[in-house]
């Protein structure tokens, strides 16, 4: 069975040149409108990012001033504001960790220092602060590892060698001696128990 359908020629009454020009004009209008919108969006996004960075730097500078005045609680609050705008700023994270150490809150200090190390794993100062924070919680082995990484990244820094790593090693030796003394004391008590019974 044969189907019947009308075949219509498009643009029979319109000149081809006029039709092509009209379609070309509409395509360029759409492209420029989209390009303009896209450019405005990118510019606005870039401006927002620049504004966040500027505001973050202001909060960071205010935190530094407060820390120099030994007002560490307020400094940490300012640095938290800066980090809410620029969360991957390793210097702010490291300063926050130092201030938290001064406030005798070593666990949050370790967290801030670990974030600083994650953001920039090639910055020796972050490893130094992480090591000091780990000493604050009594984790001598991890502190030794952190100081060793800092020394590996910056071997000419005398403070790392003479103060941080040397002190950590002496603490590890003292802990080993105390553990040995406790072990001998426990051994003596165990030997005395059967005699007394």
TrEMBL record:
TPR repeat start and end residues: 56-89, 124-157
Which keywords belong to this entry?
TPR repeat
What is the designated name of this protein? Tetratricopeptide repeat protein 33 like protein
């Amino acid at each position: 069975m044969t189907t019947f359908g009308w075949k219509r020629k498009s643009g029979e009454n319109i000149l081809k040149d006029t039709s092509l020009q009209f379609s070309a004009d509409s395509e360029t209008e759409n492209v420029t409108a989209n390009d303009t919108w896209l450019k405005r969006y990118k510019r606005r996004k870039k401006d927002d990012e620049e504004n966040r960075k500027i505001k973050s730097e202001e909060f960071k500078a205010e935190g530094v001033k407060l820390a120099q005045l030994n007002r560490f609680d307020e400094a940490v609050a300012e640095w938290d504001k800066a980090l809410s705008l620029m969360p991957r700023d390793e210097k702010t994270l490291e300063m926050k960790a130092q201030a938290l150490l001064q406030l005798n809150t070593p666990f949050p200090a370790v967290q801030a220092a670990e974030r600083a190390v994650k953001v920039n794993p090639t910055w020796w100062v972050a490893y130094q602060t992480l090591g000091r924070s780990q000493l604050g919680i009594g984790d001598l082995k991890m502190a030794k590892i952190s100081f060793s990484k800092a020394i590996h990244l910056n071997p000419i820094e005398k403070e790392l060698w003479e103060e941080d790593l040397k002190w950590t090693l002496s603490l590890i030796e003292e802990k080993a001696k105390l553990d040995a003394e406790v072990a001998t004391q426990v051994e003596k008590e165990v030997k005395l128990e059967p005699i007394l019974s």
